[in-house]
Amino acid sequence: MLLQLTISNFAIVSFLELDLRPGMTSITGETGAGKSIAIDALALALGDRADADSVRPGADKADISARFRIDKLPRVKAWLSEQELDEQGECILRRTLSREGRSRGYINGTPVPLSQLKALGALLINIHGQHAHQALQKSDYQRGLLDAYAGHHQLIQQVSKQYQQWRQLSNERKQLQNEQAQWQAQRQLLEYQVAELDELALAEDEFPTLEAEHKRLANGAELLNDCQLALNVLADGEETNALQLLRQGLKVVAELTQMDNRLGPVQEMIESSLIQLEEGHGELSRYLDRLELDPERLHEVEARLGKVMELARKHHVQPVALHEFHQEIKTRLAEMDHNDSRLQELDDEVEQTKEQFLQAAERLSQSRQRYAQSLNQQITQSLHQLSMDHGRFEITVTADNGAGYSPLGIDRVEFLVSTNPGQPMSPLAKVASGGELSRISLAIQVITAQKVETPTLIFDEVDVGVSGPTAAVVGKLLRQLGDSTQVLVITHLPQVAGNGHQHYFVSKDSADNDTQTRMQELDEHSRLQELARLLGGDKITANTLANARELLVD
């Protein structure tokens, strides 16, 4: 329930603070006094689009706060808990708007994006504007009213979930089908390339090994000759060789060390060199023993290298990368095969999820039809009360074709009405009389509002086009609604205003080039004066006061 609304520097309001109570609150005032300004400011606090022109001239920013009691609103408390926003039985929504157009929103003092203000505001207040009958002529809005009245939120959630699964799988299948069409032209080429590379069967890191082997085999004769020459130089030469010379040098140094032990380290280094030279000679000798000329193997290696080079040029890759390229195209071909299999699976899954969606949508459709019957009777009775004695109302719920499937089901909801005997049921949008349309709209809004879980309802001049006895009925309907929920009614009809549990009067004062709007709660005497003014204009007589007293509901 809305407990308090505080408005600062908004439009022509300098400062306004309203303390509100349960029941029906009537709000009246002279034309142009700004009766709807408080509602506009409240809508801003609930996340509506901000306009910098709304800031009062001469002020730096507008500031609107709305305080709500939420201890008996489990949905609101659950939402605040999910968003990790503190709640202590009350909730404060605040919105500031600077002269430059910068807007900020707060929930319980915590800065939040406007999307969160809107989401929470939708759980707290439902505003029915004077132009609601225009939205009421749209099929989507009609369906939304029926669903709100039916309260089958879980059914809608199930339908939405099944629809999303079906569409997601359908999109996946469509994407695979498109890819398959694109890949089909590549498949034969990939299959040929993979077969060709499979036949080559080039192992990972094989190409560098082949290059090294080819280099060795191609230079076999030179390796034989040069190895023998090296062995002769090192140790096998008959006349002289390095090993012989080193031994002679070691002998001389050993004798010198006997004369001067400081040459000991030199002797050790030469001895170590002699050992290394002997080991090197041995290794080179063993290498030469194993070294053979193999023209046949050389031919095989050259042929394989040639094939590798040929396929590398063919596929525009470096020979060293041919193995990796082979694995990549094998993977692509495997993906195509997997996609073929996945496509077959998707055909079954799409049909299955579509059937599940249609089953859930059918349950939702049946619920809509059931509640539509109940709503038909209530609204028809309400039309009779609103001086449309021959009025008939009917909601049709028809299954749309596949193009009309949506997360909200398969139904097309349409409000039909007949206002005169013998007149066929026609879409609400084709009702000719503006007064009749206003009354029908009002009946629908009042009745559906009784089932909506929003704790505060605001009716902003929804009684336009209604007068006389019909206005009295409207007032009684709104008061009945106020017995179960908080209702704020902006009206210009005394028959409606007199039904309020409390009454606020809106006035506008102009002085010294400054205009301000004020709202004050009326006591019983002031209420009689205001109802009399609404009845007879500025001239209040004993008769208008007597009539006003009859309209005032205790």
TrEMBL record:
<feature type="domain" description="RecF/RecN/SMC N-terminal">
    <location>
        <begin position="3"/>
        <end position="508"/>
    </location>
</feature>
<dbReference type="GO" id="GO:0006310">
    <property type="term" value="P:DNA recombination"/>
</dbReference>
<keyword id="KW-0175">Coiled coil</keyword>
<feature type="coiled-coil region">
    <location>
        <begin position="159"/>
        <end position="193"/>
    </location>
</feature>
<dbReference type="InterPro" id="IPR004604">
    <property type="entry name" value="DNA_recomb/repair_RecN"/>
</dbReference>
<dbReference type="GO" id="GO:0009432">
    <property type="term" value="P:SOS response"/>
</dbReference>
<dbReference type="GO" id="GO:0005524">
    <property type="term" value="F:ATP binding"/>
</dbReference>
<keyword id="KW-0234">DNA repair</keyword>
<dbReference type="InterPro" id="IPR027417">
    <property type="entry name" value="P-loop_NTPase"/>
</dbReference>
<comment type="function">
    <text>May be involved in recombinational repair of damaged DNA.</text>
</comment>
<feature type="coiled-coil region">
    <location>
        <begin position="336"/>
        <end position="370"/>
    </location>
</feature>
<dbReference type="Pfam" id="PF02463">
    <property type="entry name" value="SMC_N"/>
</dbReference>
<dbReference type="GO" id="GO:0006281">
    <property type="term" value="P:DNA repair"/>
</dbReference>
<dbReference type="GO" id="GO:0043590">
    <property type="term" value="C:bacterial nucleoid"/>
</dbReference>
<comment type="similarity">
    <text>Belongs to the RecN family.</text>
</comment>
<protein>
    <recommendedName>
        <fullName>DNA repair protein RecN</fullName>
    </recommendedName>
</protein>
<dbReference type="InterPro" id="IPR003395">
    <property type="entry name" value="RecF/RecN/SMC_N"/>
</dbReference>
<keyword id="KW-0067">ATP-binding</keyword>
<keyword id="KW-0547">Nucleotide-binding</keyword>
<keyword id="KW-0227">DNA damage</keyword>
